[in-house]
Amino acid sequence: MEYVSYIRTSLKSQNNGLEAQQRVIDTFIASNGGNVVQGYVEQVSGAKNEREELNKALAYCKRTGATLLVAKLDRVSRRVSFIASLMESSINLKVAELPNADPFQLHIYAALAEQERKLISQRTKSALAVLKSKGVKLGNPKAQEQTAKARVFAASIKPIIEDMKAQGIKSLNKIATALNEQGIATASGGKWYATTVKNTLGYLA
Questions:
Q1: Pairing state of beta strands 2-9 and 35-43?
Q2: What average pLDDT does this structure show over 107-118?
Q3: H or E stretch at 30
Q4: Residue 76 in 3-state DSSP?
Q5: Alpha carbon distance, N-terminus to C-terminus of the chain
Q6: Are 201 and 158 in contact (CB under 8 A)?
Q7: In this structure, what are the phi and psi dihedrals at residue 116, rounded to the nearest 5 degrees?
Q8: Is the pTM of this model over 0.85?
Q9: pLDDT per residue as tens digits for the range 24-51
Q10: In sequence order, what are the residues at sequence separation of 6 or more whose Cβ sits closer than 8 angstroms to the Cβ of residue 21?
């Protein structure tokens, strides 16, 4: 059996995902036999209809009669319509994680996966709507964590700044200079400037 492998991740930074898919494909070949005569790798969203490397892989399969081999079904597409049209074509598809699945079963798996993604999206939107109705400010979780850390740092530095103001050091430039002279670093470990002082105190406003 001759195979054409296709490996895909959505982001260019997901190199670990490429390696993981390659391992799944290698395990499949070692267990079931056959040869990978051509391989294609792509880092692009599966939502895009035009994927250059996938089109090359499909063209190669049509030309040679080789079977398209992927690690997971959603690496080909997240749309059941695309999977259905592929199965109705002359191209054979094999999914390494589902080695015993026939075309009918793959169609069912694709339909279930698409429905689950829709349900997850709906549940996420509903949960966010509930949080918003309760007055919770929504945003990037990582950004929220960074903001929380900045507020904690600002609270720790505020008494020092207030003490400086009590001693007559009131301008932002003079406060920044005094902090630097005392060897107190900013939250990021850098030097203080007037804008840094202003931004830090802004977290306590």
A1: parallel
A2: 76
A3: helix 15-32
A4: coil
A5: 68
A6: yes
A7: -65, -40
A8: no
A9: 999 999 999 999 999 999 988 766 667 8
A10: 7, 8, 9, 70, 71, 72, 75
